[in-house]
Write a structure and sequence with these properties.
This protein is an all-alpha fold and 330 residues long. It contains five helices and no strands. The protein has a domain of 116 residues.
Length: 330
């Protein structure tokens, strides 16, 4: 606010300028001109004070808005910073949890694979035992079959030998009977007939023995083939020896994520207040006051030299301007 003293008894600024101009005048100004000038000056001062008050109010509101914008920006930055720290912490925890889970799964898969391999080894061992048992059984069965066939062949040879001996005995008996009971050609014919019968029977027995031996040999070969087929079948059913599978790949922790800190939020733009002119009302009031006073002087019929009066008025105007500038600067 401006502290301006007004002297109703006289205007010291006007008196000062009139004195400097060398004019010694006695001016009688009408009461209306004085009141009008005083009113104009007071109106200019009031208007200047109102403009200054409005400017101060607008400046205060502007500062409050700027402060609110800065507070909002600070709160936003504070929240963004806290949220950023929480995001990083959550990411680190989740990253470690995922890696620990992958390690647990890796250990479990490794244990399962080792268990399956050992189980396969046990099954293979059992299959080998079963195959060996089948091969042993095939060997025993083939030997028994060989022995049975050989025994049958031996019995055949023994039977053939006994049969041949019986035939010889019968031949000798027939020849003896023929020799005792007959004489001459009849006896010879009987002996020859007995010998021929013996030859036929021997030939039949030889053929039968040869056929039986050949059949026995075929049976022995068949026994060998059957054993070979049984052994091949037993080995075919045996499991293939399992191989240890490749190790389960150990998981690796993924590369750590790169975080970018949140950009700092700046206070929002606040429109600067429009300042009202403080000097304009004062200039207007002073101009109106000068016009009123000048009109009052003219209405009293004062006669003065024109050049001197114009110079004085100009000096007064310059002083008024300086006065207004001093008020505006304060």
């Amino acid at each position: 606010m401006f502290d301006i003293e007004f002297n109703p008894k006289g205007w010291s600024l006007l008196d000062e300028q009139l004195a400097e101009s060398g004019l010694e005048m006695n001016i009688v100004i009408g009461a209306g001109a004085i009141i009008s000038g005083v009113t104009s000056v007071i109106g200019g001062i009031v208007g200047s004070n109102q403009a200054d008050a409005a400017n101060r109010k607008a400046e205060k509101a502007y500062e409050e808005q700027m402060e609110a914008a800065e507070d909002a920006a600070n709160e936003t930055n504070k929240y963004n910073k806290a949220a950023f720290k929480v995001d990083v912490a959550n990411y680190q925890r989740n990253r470690q949890y995922e890696y620990d889970t992958a390690l647990r799964n890796w250990r479990y898969q490794t244990e399962i694979q080792e268990y399956q391999y050992l189980s396969a080894i046990k099954q293979y061992g059992k299959s080998v035992d079963n195959t060996e048992s089948r091969l042993a059984y095939n060997d025993l069965a083939s030997k028994q079959a060989y022995e049975a066939e050989q025994s049958a062949l031996n019995e055949l040879y023994t039977e053939d030998a006994f049969s041949r001996q019986g035939m010889l005995v019968d031949q000798l008996q027939n020849e003896g009977r023929a020799a005792l009971g007959q004489a001459g050609n009849s006896r010879n014919k009987a002996v020859q007939s007995s010998i021929a019968a013996l030859g036929r029977n021997a030939a039949i027995m030889d053929a039968s023995l040869s056929s039986s031996v050949e059949q026995s040999q075929r049976n022995l070969r068949q026994i060998g083939l059957q054993r070979y087929a049984a052994d091949v079948n037993a080995r075919a059913q045996m499991m293939i020896r399992p191989e240890r599978p490749p190790a389960v790949l150990k998981p690796e922790q993924a590369p750590e994520r790169i975080f970018i800190k949140p950009m700092k939020v700046l206070p929002g733009a606040v429109q600067a207040p429009t300042r009202q002119s403080v000097s304009a009302p004062l200039f207007s009031g002073l101009t109106s006051a000068a016009t009123a006073i000048a009109g009052g002087i003219g209405s009293q019929g004062y006669q003065s030299p024109i050049p001197q009066f114009g110079s004085s008025v100009g000096t007064i105007g310059q002083s008024v301007g300086n006065f207004g500038s001093s008020i505006f600067n304060n």
